[in-house]
């Protein structure tokens, strides 16, 4: 069986402590998927012009946020790394003529460990975190993800962690979804389900309410979608597993790409 690639919205860091429909979905997803040998996460919270990759034997837990309850800063996700998987990724990047930077001692940011703490709470699966580059074109982001598609045949789970509608300046105090956010998400959904790369690569010009959903200062949260899609480009099929909202427009969804 080939594992799927996933796009997972990580929402607020508080997801690590919350109990609601979306958090319970992530818990069940981790139980339902075949247990991976390792997990590779492209995180929106590591935005770098150089493709970077953690190469640690074990990871610290980054608390890269402020103003949250003290309990958030006490959480730890002590996952190990994997020298074998990092070497495999390095060889695939080299084959794709992509320069990469091995990084020691960074730790896992909350884009990675928050969702993994729900999906795999025992932290017993090796994790490798990869950066995204929000300045690259969607085509380039997709192509980088595609370099790693072979990993899925080796029982490695590839996740893009971000947010399709993620504009913190437009959030409200209600969970009732804003119509504009829903309209944007549904446009994305239609084009994902038909794997319409021409439209998706031009989402910023074609999608309704694109400027509100993906503000110019927040494109790094949308970028992981293309990395995850690329990792399943050999199958080119998409399925939305859940769609909910917090704070009016903070989209919490999970997309599964490929998997057979």
UniProtKB/TrEMBL annotation:
<dbReference type="Pfam" id="PF02900">
    <property type="entry name" value="LigB"/>
</dbReference>
<dbReference type="InterPro" id="IPR014436">
    <property type="entry name" value="Extradiol_dOase_DODA"/>
</dbReference>
<dbReference type="GO" id="GO:0008198">
    <property type="term" value="F:ferrous iron binding"/>
</dbReference>
<keyword id="KW-0479">Metal-binding</keyword>
<keyword id="KW-0223">Dioxygenase</keyword>
<dbReference type="GO" id="GO:0008270">
    <property type="term" value="F:zinc ion binding"/>
</dbReference>
<keyword id="KW-0862">Zinc</keyword>
<comment type="similarity">
    <text>Belongs to the DODA-type extradiol aromatic ring-opening dioxygenase family.</text>
</comment>
<dbReference type="GO" id="GO:0016702">
    <property type="term" value="F:oxidoreductase activity, acting on single donors with incorporation of molecular oxygen, incorporation of two atoms of oxygen"/>
</dbReference>
<keyword id="KW-0560">Oxidoreductase</keyword>
<dbReference type="InterPro" id="IPR004183">
    <property type="entry name" value="Xdiol_dOase_suB"/>
</dbReference>
<feature type="domain" description="Extradiol ring-cleavage dioxygenase class III enzyme subunit B">
    <location>
        <begin position="5"/>
        <end position="245"/>
    </location>
</feature>
<protein>
    <submittedName>
        <fullName>Dioxygenase</fullName>
    </submittedName>
</protein>
